[in-house]
């Protein structure tokens, strides 16, 4: 073998070895870049999830606090009614007690009258008996003898009439006293019946008051429980707010870190495919992140962040947002569709860029655009969603992001497979 040929072969071998060494050096770098983005994305999404859970817990606590406040208002109203009933019952009890006292006084008076009348009956009965005995015993002259000793018929009749009247007077007096006693006893029986009714009313009112007092105590205890629960929930929300602030700071740092990483990458498709990222930002919602979501959402600042063509092609559609249509029905808002031709397998590929800022679309239908060319500015037009990302991270009060789709043969595919 000639020296010249040998030299050529050695040079070729050296070049091959150099290429192999270069490839060996590049592979870890590319792998490291991919791993770095994957790690940053995972960190960012983990923080997003934490923040979403914290905000969800705060909202749940606030809902419980509001519900408990409503219960407190209802219980306070019930307590006011109960306390009013307690006051009315106290007044009723006072009236019933006064009636019972008055009734008892009347009964006591009747008992006195009964005793007094009985004493009169006893006294008059005693006098009657004494007079009768005196008639029989006075001068050993009997009533008959008293009549027979009359000296004339007129005296006889006069004596008979006197004896008769004395007897009738005593009998009538005793009978009247007995009737009076009977009437008093009847009146007393009525008062005793009325007293029993009043006593029953008193017992019912006392039972009602005891029940109302128990309701008042239980309601007050429940109010105190609700107050304590609300204090615990408020304390929990204060702690969650502190944790939320920490996670927002971490999320902001993660976002900035991811932005620095993306900015450090070349814009020639170094993300592993033939398309470049249309926006440098974190992905807030993945392909099929929720039902009907046919692209990925990339965060940015509304009215500031430029949107670039992910691949060269021809603009085939430019849509504008009709603000008379509610957001929920406004779809993509301001958007652009680019026909990117066919891939090596003959598949038709189109890209869609949605929710761009009003009056910032820089292309028109039929215009050819190059990869990386600015076609508009990121915004929040149409039906946008923030997907739980905190407004502290980007302009998400209004849900600003780019919705990016890659459509192959009229079917949306995961853009990450091409970026």
UniProtKB/TrEMBL annotation:
Gene Ontology terms for molecular function: metalloendopeptidase activity
Domain M23ase beta-sheet core: 292-415
Coiled-coil positions: 37-120, 167-257
UniProt keyword list: Coiled coil, Signal
Keyword Coiled coil in annotation: yes
Domain of life: Bacteria
Record CDD domains: M23_peptidase
Gene3D superfamilies for the chain: 6.10.250.3150, Glucose Permease (Domain IIA)
Signal peptide: 1-31
UniProt domain Peptidoglycan hydrolase PcsB coiled-coil: residue ranges: 114-186
UniProt key word Signal: yes
UniProt cross-references to InterPro entries, sorted A to Z: Cell_wall_metabolism_enzyme, Dup_hybrid_motif, M23ase_b-sheet_dom, PcsB_CC
PANTHER family registered for this protein in UniProt: MUREIN HYDROLASE ACTIVATOR ENVC (PTHR21666:SF270), PEPTIDASE-RELATED (PTHR21666)
Protein name (record): Uncharacterized protein
